[in-house]
Amino acid sequence: MHLRKRRTKPVARVAATALVCCTTVLLDAPFAAAADGTPAFSADPLSTWQTDGIVWSLAAANGVVYVGGSFDTVRPPGAAPGQRQVARRNFAAFDAKTGKLLPCAPTFTGHHHTVRALKASADGRVLYVGGSFEHVGSTRVANAVALDTAGCTLSKDFRPSVSATVRAIETTGDTVYLGGDFSRIGGQLRTRVAALTTKGALLPFQADVDQPVRALSAATSYGRLFVGGDFESVNGKAARSLVTLNPGSGKTVLAYPGWFPPQSSVKTIARYKDRFYVGAEGHGTGIFDGRIAGRLTNGSMVWKDTCFGATQAIVPYKNLLYSASHAHNCNETPGGFPERGDRQHLLVQSLEDRRILHWFPDTNDGIGEHVGPRALAISKDVLWAGGEFTRVNDVPQQGLTRFGSRDTGAPEVPVLAVSGTEPGSVTLTWRATWDRDDASLTYRVYRDGKAVATKTQESTYWKLPQMTHTDSVAAGSHRYTLEVTDGTNTSAKSNTVTVTVPAKSAPAKTAPTKAAKKPVEGGPK
């Protein structure tokens, strides 16, 4: 859902689907299990090259991450716009582990000059590329091609003539599926979805989809091709935004009535074990644009996450679901957050019950349609994200970022204050700070340079509890500071506050009183 507000965070049912497509995510390594549900990645970004425009799609193959989008140049980490630019026309390649820019640099030009979909073959030898372009280098093409990854050369076989933009690509062993805006391929009628051989020959598969296709995922062992997009009708029958087709014929297998309201479009599809996951973008206030989990076995819905925020990409990894969106108003999701007028652009949640975990790296909305990140890919234990953003964790970084496993960011430094003094004690107070990937933080109180107390507190960017400590201390002048640690990284010391503790007052002395003399009995009256 598009609500174009600036961030105000504290500084610091039924279907089966398969792997993701185009603006979603591609993996080149098998999934691993994480028994404790701990996020696999730090929230601290690694040094990453940048683009001068939008990244629409990412793909990973054989230790290389391929980047497609609408950009003319890339620049090194830390370089400001316009500085140290290297030409890359809508396509670039990087070493997945080190982030190094690779020489693979075919240019994609013509039409709208954009690459919208990338998908590697299972063996990583071929990279299929779709979008809106007329040339790769000097070779004339029409919106879809294949590259031989070994030499980064244009394949001579796969060059179908597609009539309009390709937005999604999926592959099986011998078939390549295309989805997008087109109505013809090679002059033959194919309305927004088509199947071709790996040599580029058009297959008999045919389906009639009334609006653009934006996501594809093949679950061949279940006899289904998952198709997501803007559509209302498929093969002449109602099918709102998500449908499964027979991968050979294109006939409808399942539709999903009630899953997506009008104006909600499926943008991304992924599969993990015996479940599938979809992410949607709502066009208009209050329109569903969260994530849904379903069972591959019978197509029933497992859960529905109602966070707002235009989900653009999802990737399951180590029993968790990573997503790119601009999430807000997540109150109804376990572990979620209230509507505050700001946005959280990257999330991770449990595949089992949709619970949001404490992992909050972030971007800004950026340029273009102001939705932030649009694509995810994982390779060599590194999570890559691309999109429209121009900042990551409040630091300038355009188009691309990535996250490894090492936690390098210290929590923000609290502000320390004194709320009261009395003989023998000082009461200190501070607002809890927060950390992007650690919910529980430990605070150390120092008096005159010596640690005198520790306190542990859970906090999030939307819930920062007030904390206090009362220190028993002798009379005189004392200096207090505070630091906070996530167990790996420790903040700098806080501001110093100086307190003069009064001495205990001595009890007031009183003069003894003389007892009145009793009159002597029989004496004078």
Descriptive overview:
This protein has two domains: 354 residues, 7 Propeller (Methylamine Dehydrogenase, Chain H), CATH 2.130.10; 86 residues, Sandwich (Immunoglobulin-like). A hairpin with a 5-residue loop joins strand 8 and strand 9. The relative contact order is 0.14. 0% of the residues lie in helices and 42% in strands. By secondary structure, it is mainly beta. The strands form 14 sheets. The chain has a four-stranded antiparallel β-sheet, with no helix packed on it. Strands 19-20-23-24 form a four-stranded antiparallel β-sheet, with no helix packed on it. Strands 25-26-27-28 form a four-stranded antiparallel β-sheet, with no helix packed on it.
Which key terms come to mind for this protein?
Methylamine Dehydrogenase, Chain H; 2 domains; 43 strands; 0% helix; disordered N terminus; disordered C terminus
Helicity range of the residues? under 10%
* CATH topology label of the largest domain: Methylamine Dehydrogenase, Chain H
Counting H and I runs of at least 4 residues, what is the number of helices?
Answer: 0
Specify the CATH architecture of the largest domain: 7 Propeller
Q: Beta-sheet strand percentage?
A: 35-45%
Low-confidence stretches: 1-8, 11-35, 520-525
C-alpha geometry: elongated
Count of DSSP strands: 43
Structural class: mainly beta
- The first-to-last residue Cα distance is 105 Å
**CATH superfamily caption of the largest domain:** YVTN repeat-like/Quinoprotein amine dehydrogenase
Estimate nothing, just give the exact number of structural domains.
2
Radius of gyration: 30 Å
Strand order of the largest sheet: 8-9-12-13
Kindly state the mean pLDDT as a whole number?
A: 91
Largest sheet: 4 strands, antiparallel
